[in-house]
Amino acid sequence: MKKILIGVLFLAIFANSAISQSSIIGNWTLEKAQKPEPNSIIFLETDTMKLTSDWKLAEVSIYDINYPEYGPQKIHLKYKLKITSEGEYRLDSELKKYPKSPTIEIIEGSASDEDAAQGSRKEIEKLIKEEVKNFMPILNVTETELELQSTSWNLKFTKPRSLPVSKLTRDTVPFFAPEDWRFPETAKELASFDKRLKNDPKNLLTMVKDDFNGDGSVDAVAYLLNESTGQVALFVNKSFPDGSYELSPYGNADKNTIIENGVMLAPPGEYVNSATKSKVTIENPGFMIIIFNTAANLIYWHPKYKEWVSIPVGKKF
Fold it and tell me: How far apart are CA 233 and CA 253, in angstroms?
């Protein structure tokens, strides 16, 4: 096989003052698929790396293999390889890589071509063993982007931004504020502070997070401030298992909202509609919008109608 293996199997880290270890720890995913060179038989489709604080490395790569005419029978052979790699880096007099032998398996291909695929795999394994010996220079690194210099194509990896942490509660906020909006940062921005401080857990009644729709993902609601308009609004962030999300304001934005209102978690269970006296049972957590010294409304996700439902519960806080 004369073609060069395209892609990267291991992440190279250089002991450079411009690259801190904390900036590259995390899960990295190839930003876009590798475009094969003309007549290439191997190209990288996806690549996900995980590097931990002790420089342990785990990586899963998916390669497309395309032989137009393989072997004596001139078979047009197409299949995918899954390559699982582990290893570590050690800094002695210089940074050295200590990889383990990668695990290689065929994950997609026709059964009639199985023998030919197994034969071609042995050839590819030879290339892989040579490839893992090479360092990939880091061309650029930021908190969320890493670019490596590959043999024939620079590889750009990305990872999600670190979620923000509330300056008030020191707790992780499960979503990013949209442009021009931010989370409360000081106690001076909150009225009824004594009531908020007594709340348990002490989230100051500005944010709650739980799985509101029962899909296994963490959702959240939080009051955000818009400094340019002076408005405050309750935003609802609904997450989905595939990593996508939906963020939208709930209700009307008003300058006094965060002064007069709070939000708290409503656990699953039975609630009484104070207007109709009827009982409502929710299977997943919801949240309550509190109007201080007045009343509260229970908000929950209706699994059948796929929408938020609000009922008055008549409690005073």
Answer: 4
Judgement on whether residues 74 and 111 belong to the same structural domain of the protein: yes
The reply to whether 149 and 197 lie within a common domain is: no
Which domain does 300 fall in, by range?
A: 181-312
What 3-state class would DSSP assign to 198?
helix
The sign one gets for the Cα dihedral 224, 226, 297, 220 is negative
> Taking the complete model, does pTM exceed 0.70, yes or no?
no
Q: Is the pLDDT of residue 6 over 70?
A: no
Which residue type, as a one-letter code, is found at position 226?
N
- 300 close to 212: Cβ distance less than 8 angstroms: yes
DSSP string, 38-97: TT-SEEEEEEEEEE-TT-EEEEEEEEEEEEEEETTTTEEEEEEEEEEEEEEEEESSSEEE
Number of domains in the chain: 2
Same-domain check for residues 29 and 147: yes
In 3-state terms the chain splits into helix, strand, coil percentages (rounded to 5) of: 10, 45, 45
Conformational region of residue 146, where left means phi above 0, alpha means psi within -120 to 50, and beta covers everything else:
beta
Give tens-digit pLDDT for 216-266: 989 999 999 888 888 888 999 988 775 667 888 887 777 777 778 889 999
